[in-house]
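Researcher: Structure for this, please.
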Amino acid sequence: MKQLRGFKYRFYPTSAQRLDLAQMFGCIRYVYNWALSLRTNSYYQDNVPLSYTDTSNALTKLKKDPEKPWLKAVSSVPLQQELRHLNTAFKNFYAGRSKYPRFKKKSNRQSAHYAPNAFKWNDGKLTLAKMSQPLKIRWSRYFTGEPKSVTISKDPSNRYFVSFLVEEELDTWSQGSDQIGIDLGIKDVVVTSNGFASGNPKHYQKYQTRLKTLQRRLAKKKKGSNNRYKARLKVAKLHAKIADCRKDFLHKLSTKLVSENQAIYTETLAVKNMMANHKLAKAISDCGWSEFLRQLEYKAKWHDRKIGAIDRWFSSSKRCNPCGHILDKLPLEIREWTCPSCNSLNLRDKNAALNILAVGQTVFACGLSSGGDESKTHLAILG
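Model: Predicted structure, token format:
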């Protein structure tokens, strides 16, 4: 089965390429902020909503402004793509999927999206529009096929990355019959119904002391000074290290679970609401539950596995798996408890995973799934 996949690599630009990319990122940032301001003012002042076509026509006129000749010095394709990204951001806002679009900052992540007509791909060498030399890419793995699009990005720690969107044939994984339920937690990021506990590396906590020191030094630097720039860079590099460690752990964990099991049943968590608890917010964000579930979903779709998410209000932790008795209260600090009905000893996380597995299997067997995608089914369980 062919599937669109993204391949991300780090590359090391030359001095001339750094200047070209800096100019490109600056133009993209300017066009995005200009179009966002244009659409906002048009709606709130003139009560006239603007579309992508309106901003595209306005950009054509803007590039003819004699005071802005630098807009013509870069490729027009990434500029048009940025207007499309802004239009998508507005669609997500109107649909209630995201907040109102915000202005872009120079210190945040920068990116440029290139369509096939804005780059050359020849014998494994990538040359962007307006550049004469190919990029020096560090190939950690290879792909087959022609790139359908290319995204150049620069993170706050001044690392450059290139992402290829490629359609290629996926390796076929053997089909099995194993099914598991997984419970997400803080002590262990994942506990499965078969007894596997992933542990929690706590990457943020590991570097928290060092991060506090660097942030305190940054706060004392004079704004706009070179020393402040160096201090900000150190903080950004440490944040990038924490994020990379967390993502590496989650990728290995999700790949292991998807490769070993044909069906995986999970709980539905309102992570955003749970982050309102300031005592647990830092620990929850360090686990990366949302990213983990996202990885499970697309990897299951790639390899013909099934993902089932049970109803959010199903009491998986307080329900005794052997007899079905439900406790009135179960504080978070209690990690194991004895059922007052059948006297069985239940480990909190494993018991929850067993309940999730049982509910998922029951609903799938009865054919009461409510999702349209066969790779992911949302199961509504009452009581």
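Researcher: Any notable elements?
Model: Residues 179-201+258-378 form one domain. Confidence is low (pLDDT under 50) at residues 368-378.
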